[in-house]
Design brief:
By secondary structure, the protein is of the alpha/beta class. It has helices at 14-24, 43-50, 66-79, 96-102, 122-128, 164-187; strands at 3-9, 30-37, 55-57, 84-87, 106-110, 133-140, 150-157, 191-194, 197-200. It binds 5-O-phosphono-beta-D-ribofuranosylamine. 5-O-phosphono-beta-D-ribofuranosylamine is lined by residues 11-15, 88-89, 109-111, 172, 175.
Length: 205
């Protein structure tokens, strides 16, 4: 079955751009079927439109509760034949029903070496902890916050001169290299989740 990806975004979408660029270079064996944003007017939507990818805005403020939002999201993804959901700066927690329905086909990227520094302030937290290194984690999403089975990680040394801005920039650079590789491997069926265990037959960090 050929992979059809739904990318969920909320912001600038540089990781989405990395996926689009990989696809154009022939390095992503999948169709980017739809980009869904929970925030109207974000740069990620522009990037999708420029690349000819369908976009959908599901403004979470318009929904009665998380369940209603998640149901609408699920309908959008199903109706476009999506079989792999890629979170790329999606700043909204999805509920347990959605996670269970997509478990093993729902991945996220996080700017730390999980389980260190989960949550929305991973870069700031790593600096505050005076960590010598941090990195990037790509993982299957489970019902916890940044707790799902880890697929791939890449470390990055923190320099004494790093600020939150410089470190975030360098982490983004790592993300843009790693995410397309991992998503390609997922799309090719070279990374799967079996009985809660990540099985990889691709060369990945
Ligand atoms: C990335 O740092 C990612 O790790 C985190 O959100 C950020 C999204 O950046 N989950 P962008 O929108 O892809 O530029």
């Amino acid at each position: 079955m050929s992979a059809r990806i739904g990318v969920l975004v909320s912001g600038s979408g540089t990781n989405l751009q990395a996926l689009i660029d990989a696809r154009h270079r022939g390095e992503l064996a999948a169709t980017l079927a739809v980009v869904v944003s929970n925030v109207p007017g974000v740069k990620a939507l522009e990037r999708a439109t420029r690349a000819g990818i369908a976009t959908v805005v599901l403004d979470h403020r318009a929904f009665a509760d998380r369940d209603a939002f998640d149901r609408a999201l699920d309908v959008e993804l199903q109706s476009r034949g999506v079989n792999l959901v890629v979170l790329a700066g999606f700043m909204r927690l999805v509920g347990a029903t959605f996670v269970k329905a997509w478990y093993g086909r729902l991945v996220n990227i996080h700017p730390s070496l999980l389980p260190e520094f989960p949550g929305t302030h991973a870069v700031r937290d790593a600096l505050a902890a005076r960590a010598a290194r941090t990195g990037v984690t790509i993982h299957f999403v489970d019902t916890g916050t940044d707790t799902g089975p880890i697929i791939s990680q890449q470390a990055l040394d923190i320099s004494p001169d790093d600020t939150a801005e410089t470190l975030a920039l360098r982490l983004h650079h790592v993300e843009h290299g790693l995410y397309p590789r991992v998503v390609d491997a997922l799309a090719r069926g070279l990374v799967t989740l079996e009985d809660g265990r990540v099985v990889k037959s691709a060369e990945l960090p």
